[in-house]
Amino acid sequence: MVGNGHFPVERHGAVAVVRISRPDKLNAFFGKMRDEAAEVFEELGEDTSVRAVVVTGAGRAFCAGADVGYLAMLLEERRYDEADELVTAGRRVVTAIRNMPKAVIAAINGAAAGGGANLALACDLRLASDNASIGQTFNRIGVNPDWGGTYAVPRLVGPARAAELFMFADMVPAREAGRIGLVNRVVAPEELMPLAMEWAQTLAAKPALPIRLSKEAIARSLTSTLEEMLQFEEAAQRECFESADAREGTLAFTEKRAPRFGRGAGQGDP
Question: Which of 69, 178, 248, 265 would be 48's cystine partner, CB 3.0–4.6 Å?
Answer without folding.
Answer: 265
